[in-house]
Amino acid sequence: MTFEIVRKFLVNIYQKIRYNFLQRHVYGITASFRVLPDFMVIGFGKAGTSTLYHYLGEHPCIIKSSHDHLGFFDDNFHLGLNFYKSFFPTRKTKNEILKKYGKFLTYDVTAWYITSPLCAKQILKTLPKIKLIIICRNPADVAYSYFNGDTRLSKKISFEEAIEKEIKIHETKIKKSKEFPLELLENSFLARGIYFEQLKIWSELFQKDQLLFIKTEDLEKDPIRIFNDIFEFLDLPKFTIKNFEKQNVGKYPPMKKETRKILIDFYKLYNKKFQKLIDNKFGWDEFN
């Protein structure tokens, strides 16, 4: 073994000890007695993933992970499954819920999994039967939300100036690349709403009955129906979420109508591809 291989091996061992035991404490020590998730909410960002994390755990058959956005399958996969298990309930808790209600599920909500083909492959390899929930919001509103969430950017230029700049960058990179450049997803708030390109790998790897797409706007209008759609997808009995309200709501002025029109035109082709892929029309191309 070369020095570099030995070094990487020792670093990996150190990180596993550090994160599993020193950082996760009793949860890491008891990880082997804990369970893996039965389903995930894998995206999209700024669409309501925090709201789903907050309320899904109200169903008596569902126990949430210790927090949302675990990020195991991208940044922390090298730490091993015991590190991942440390964020989930114990088998004892599972058995208690099963005895009381007849069903038990737990879940991981990490919005940025959807952006990574590597995450898709690692999730399939680790949890081939996992069910995946994807919540989708009008891309125009997603772009506006990302822009306003970046205070360094929004304090320097207007949203309209930022859009003009990003569209030019987008068009330049698309022309230079035969395939959609995925690096755009990391640096472009407009690219985050191009759902088709992010979803292709997931639709190729996972069975259709493993994927559930829900619309943010529908969740806001009729949360009881949408949550029961989710529970049906998870093969759980219906349950009424009480005192529903959106989580992590951004506070900023409404988007200008003429700006929304520009974004609707920009996303129109991508939305058409996305809706064909999932065989569902979300009505985002309508200008209100």
Would you mind describing this structure in some detail?
With 288 residues, the protein is an alpha/beta fold. The chain has a single domain, classed as P-loop containing nucleotide triphosphate hydrolases (Rossmann fold, 3-Layer(aba) Sandwich), CATH 3.40.50. It is 51% helix and 8% strand. It is built from 14 helices and five strands. Strands 2-3-1-4-5 form a five-stranded parallel beta sheet. α6 runs parallel beside α11 and α11 packs parallel to α14. 33% of the residues are buried.
Please name the defining characteristics of this protein.
288 residues, 14 helices, 51% helix, globular, Rossmann fold, alpha/beta
Number of domains: 1
Task: Report the sheet with the most strands, covering strand number, pairing sense and barrel closure.
Answer: 5 strands, parallel
Number of strands: 5
Q: Report the CATH topology name.
A: Rossmann fold
Under the CATH scheme, the architecture is 3-Layer(aba) Sandwich
Helical content stands at 40-55%
The first-to-last residue Cα distance is: 64 Å
Structural class: alpha/beta
Low-pLDDT runs of 5+ residues are: none
Taking all residues together, what is the mean pLDDT?
89
Topology:
Elements: H1 3-23, H2 25-29, E1 39-43, H3 49-56, E2 62-64, H4 81-85, H5 91-101, E3 105-109, H6 117-126, E4 131-136, H7 139-149, H8 151-154, H9 159-176, H10 184-187, H11 195-205, E5 211-215, H12 216-221, H13 223-233, H14 257-278
Parallel strand pairs: 1-3, 1-4, 2-3, 4-5
Helix pairs in contact: 6-11, 11-14
